[in-house]
Structure formats: C-alpha cells, structure tokens
Design a protein that fits this description.
Layout lengths: L2 E5 L4 H13 L3 E6 L12 E5 L5 H8 L4 E4 L10 H13 L3 E3 L15 H13 L7 E2 L1 E3 L2 E2 L20 E2 L4 E5 L6 E5 L1 H13 L7 E3 L4 E3 H12 L4 E5 L1 H5 L18 H4 L2 H14 L8 H5 L8 H9 L4
Parallel strand pairs: 1-2, 1-4, 2-3, 4-5, 5-6, 7-12, 8-11, 10-14
Antiparallel strand pairs: 9-10, 11-13
Helix pairs in contact: 1-5, 2-3, 6-11
Family: Belongs to the NmrA-type oxidoreductase family. Isoflavone reductase subfamily.
Protein name: NAD(P)-binding protein
GO molecular function: oxidoreductase activity
Length: about 325
C-alpha cells in the first residue's frame, strides 16, 4: 500500500480514476484541491487537502510521503502550466517517486490551442530530467473518449456526455475532404481508469509515453459503424483542409455542448475552434496514439467500439 495524491481530484476524469483506485482497496488516497467547497463531494475513504498551487511550501508539505502523484489540473485557465510546474517542483522537493501530468487525450496537440499547456508541461518534465532522472513520469494518452460517441447519453459515472465530430444521435459527421482514412484512437473512460489503476500498481519503471489504445479506427470506419448501429445512412459534411487552416468551418453544424471546465465567457467560438482543431490534428496524426500500456498489460480486454456502441444505442431513438 502506498500513498497516492490526486491533484485536481474533483474533476470528472479524476473521479473516475479515484473510484477505480478505491475499488482495489490497496492505497491511501489524498485529493489536493484549491477549494474547500468540494469537501462535500469527497469520496469516502480518501483525505481531502486544500492547497495553494502558488505556495511551494504548502505543496511540498501536502506531498510529503507521497509515492505517486496523479495530476488532473485544468489547463484552460492556465495555458502556461504554471500550477503544474509548481506541482512538479514540489513533487521533486518532497521526494515523490512517480508523476502523471494532466493529459488523458491525444498524442499530439497541433492545432489544439486549448491543450497548449500540455506541451509546456512535457517540455518542463524533459528539462528537469535532462541531466539525470529526478522524477519518473508517464503521459497517459488514450485518444478521444469513446463515451462521447454516445452523446447525449451518459455512459460513465462522472464524465458527462460531450459532442464530437461524430454525431450518432443525429446521424451525421464531419470529415476533412480527402482524409477519410485519418486515424482516431477511441477508448472508454472505464478502460482508461482501469489502465491507470494498473499502472499505479505496476512495480517496474513507467514508460514516458503511456499510450492507451482502446480502438484504432479511421473516420470512415467510425461512420460505417454508426450507420450499421443506427440503421440509416449518415449525412457527412466534407470540410476543406484549406478552409480549416484559415479558421473557416463551412459545415452545416459544429459542436455546441459546453464542457463544464469551459466558462461562459471562454465558450464564445470555442465549439468552432474545437471542431477545427480535432479535424486538422487528426489528419496530422495527433489522434493516432501509441500502445505502450496495451503491451504492458496484454491480458487486459478493452471495450471494442462496435460492441460498446451497440449496447449504448440499443433501443435508443
């Protein structure tokens, strides 16, 4: 049994991981949070610690005795990654052995400005380990949550439904014209949480890149599976690459559902930005994640896209 600290532990993905870790009944878990307002939401069996991410001494004290630190800090409000850099410095000072920064998405971040903070953190981790490894770390990268293809239906306990460029409910999709073979990696939230829990228990050294490949499929395959499950042809909007590069989205629809981490002020035009970013980044290989953790845990059986979505959409209008 080791002590695990979870930074940003009140977030949706964090809570999925915490629940899975608690179910193993193996570890002491401490949640680090900026606010006491979330104390009522603390799962039983964990300790809640309010911290100031700008106070190095406070962070070091909170991390004393921690073996593994998992970060789920929100990056939109801190694109420079200052809070996460402070967390890394404090982890090193406190003698934390392992660290996982706030990732849980694509391998690349090109054309995705809302994830700029990830690149800053990746570079900082390389910097602190440049001369010798002072902090073991892993980048958990599962691609896009497969659960989002169930929108508007909720398929995870904590993670809310979100739209994607594949709209199974309305039978429509957006692709980049001529790039229908672009690769998407789609992994369920449950599978991600299960693999993270296994990685926490893993006694060997973590790989720096922690690819989690639930399903590796092309855009056209995702659409074909949708048409089969929904029993009707999809309407496909073909966006021109040159239009997308210029910031233009000439399609009949775009993402409208606001992520809870995005404020009302931030959301103006955000759906369009995310639509363009997902489309452009996917044709540049950002969503084709590696499979290091599949190889590390070869006995784990991932949810297959067609089976999962068939169960979700059975009997749905």
């Amino acid at each position: 049994m080791v002590k695990i600290a979870v930074a940003g532990g009140s977030g949706q993905v964090a809570r999925e991981v915490i629940d899975t870790l608690l179910a193993t009944n193996k570890h002491y878990i401490a949640i680090l949070s900026r606010s006491e307002a979330s104390l009522k939401d603390a799962p039983s069996g964990v300790r809640w610690r309010v911290v100031n991410y700008d106070d190095q001494g406070d962070l070091v004290e909170a991390l004393r005795g921690t073996h593994t630190l998992l970060s789920f800090l929100q990056l939109l409000s801190d694109p420079e990654g200052r809070s996460q850099k402070n967390l890394i410095d404090a982890a090193i000072a406190a003698g934390v052995k392992r660290f996982a920064p706030s990732e849980y998405g694509s391998a690349g971040t090109i054309n995705m400005p809302w994830w700029a903070g990830k690149e800053n953190t990746r570079e900082y981790l390389r910097k602190v380990n440049r001369n010798k490894k002072v902090l073991e770390y892993i980048l958990f990268q599962p691609g896009l949550f497969l659960d989002y293809l169930a929108f508007p239906y909720k398929t995870a306990k904590h993670v809310d439904p979100l739209q994607s460029v594949f709209d199974y409910y309305n039978g429509r999709a957006i692709v980049v014209d001529g790039h229908e073979d672009a690769i998407m990696t789609l992994t369920t939230v449950g599978d991600v949480a299960a693999i993270v829990a296994r990685a926490v228990d893993y006694e060997g050294e973590w790989p720096e890149i922690g690819g989690i490949r639930g399903n590796r499929v092309t855009f056209s395959q995702v659409i074909q599976i949708g048409e089969k499950i929904r029993g009707r042809p999809f309407t496909v909007d073909n966006a021109k690459k040159e239009d997308l590069e210029s910031g233009t989205l000439n399609t009949s629809w775009a993402l409208e559902k606001r992520h809870p981490a995005v404020s009302e002020e931030q959301y103006a035009g955000f759906g369009k930005t995310v639509s363009i970013g997902i489309l452009l980044s996917s044709i540049k290989g950002a969503c084709d994640v590696s499979d290091e953790l599949n190889q590390l845990f070869p006995d784990y059986s991932f949810n297959k896209i067609e089976d999962f979505l068939t169960r979700v959409w059975k009997g749905k209008p």
